[in-house]
Amino acid sequence: MKNNRITKLFNIKYPIVQGGMVWVSGWKLASAVSNEGGLGLIGAGSMYPEVLRKHIQKCKKATNKPFGVNVPMLYPDIEKIMDIIVEEDVKIVFTSAGNPKSWTSFLKDKGITVVHVVSSVKFALKAALAGVDAIVCEGFEAGGHNGREETTTFTLIPMVKEQVKIPVIAAGGIATGRGMLAAMVLGADGVQIGSRFAATEESSAHIKFKNSIVDVKDGDTHLTLKELAPVRLIKNKFFHDLQALYQQNPTKENLQELLGRARAKKGIFEGDLDEGELEIGQIAGLIHEIRPVKDVINEIINEFIEAKSFIHKC
After folding, report:
1. Residue 75: what pLDDT?
2. CATH tag, 5-204+287-313
3. Which helix H or strand E contains 6, and what residues bound it?
């Protein structure tokens, strides 16, 4: 993987990026992934600015390898977040949920490598024009907040690859070495993995949420709340309450009232499996145990090599 564009861009061993998930991706997870040769990301979306600073500082002490910060641009205190990133000398930033033009120049002027997350060819082209160094193409299978187009990862990757020249990272529905190889055969230069890392020992998610990931079967997740911000959830009590509300032809205000505040924190971080938002990807159906990051990455890489070798023999 020495000639891989993603390993070169980030100066990492493997073209594997850990998703910067809210309430999951703290310094322990990010540093563990970086120490094992991937790129760990701290998820700023669920952190107050000074909490993010502490996570960055702890991550620096826990690894001497590259790591980054994922920043949803809808964050209310984004100016403070960006200032902290610069002050703490973070070298890699992934942006999402917003216009890449807003912060790309600011970050690149500070010598920071910028990657933007997109869900369509249209947004991939906008990100490339904004001057980002790479893009994450996230398909409909992904957990958490998602694109409205419902384009799957394995159709999105080749369509984007046809249109842009910068490195492309595939995300959504990838948790295995076989999935990683498939994405790269379709044109991805690397992969971003979220759900598999959410169910690791180093993830900051509540153990009840981690166990719920392991229990997920095919069809147990669904994309909903498109009127507000599309999100893929495990079908729990809150999800079914939401579906019952949809039967009443609700307004956006009705949906927002039911959603309330801090639903993701309640479910993912506090372990309320009934009333919380349980955000996870469809690939959770292939996750059967909670394991250390080291074991997960070793398994992915070994399976990738084995699958690649099998193809060469065919």
Report:
1. 82
2. 3.20.20.70
3. helix 5-10
Name the residue among 298, 267, 311 with its Cα closest to residue 14: 298
Delimit the domains of the chain by residue range.
5-204+287-313, 214-283
DSSP string for 88-124: TT--EEEEESS-GGGTHHHHHHTT-EEEEEESSHHHH
Q: Quote the crossing angle between the two packed helices 121-130 and 153-161, to the nearest 10°.
A: 50
- Closest to 46 measured CA to CA, from 215, 266, 250: 266
Distance of CA 155 to the CA centre of its chain: 18
Identify the CA nearest to 67 among candidates 29, 118, 124: 29
Q: Which residue type does 65 have?
A: K
Sheet bearing 92-96, strands edge to edge: 16-18, 190-193, 168-171, 134-138, 113-118, 92-96, 67-72, 40-43
What beta strand segments (E) does the chain contain? 16-18, 40-43, 67-72, 92-96, 113-118, 134-138, 144-145, 168-171, 190-193, 221-224, 231-234
- pLDDT tens profile 73-93: 888 889 999 999 999 999 999
pLDDT value of residue 50: 96
Tokens matching residue 18 = 């850990």
Cβ–Cβ < 8 Å for 268, 234: no
- Residue 2 is predicted with a pLDDT of 66
User: What residues does 40 pair with on adjacent strands?
Assistant: 67
CB atoms within 10 A of CB 125: 15
Cα separation, 4 vs 13, whole angstroms: 10
Q: Which residues of the chain have pLDDT under 70?
A: 1-2, 314
Sheet order of strands, 231-234 included: 144-145, 231-234, 221-224
Neighbour-count burial for 25-36, b at 16+ CB within 10 Å, e otherwise: bbbbbbbbbbbb
pLDDT single digits (tens) 5-16: 999 999 999 999
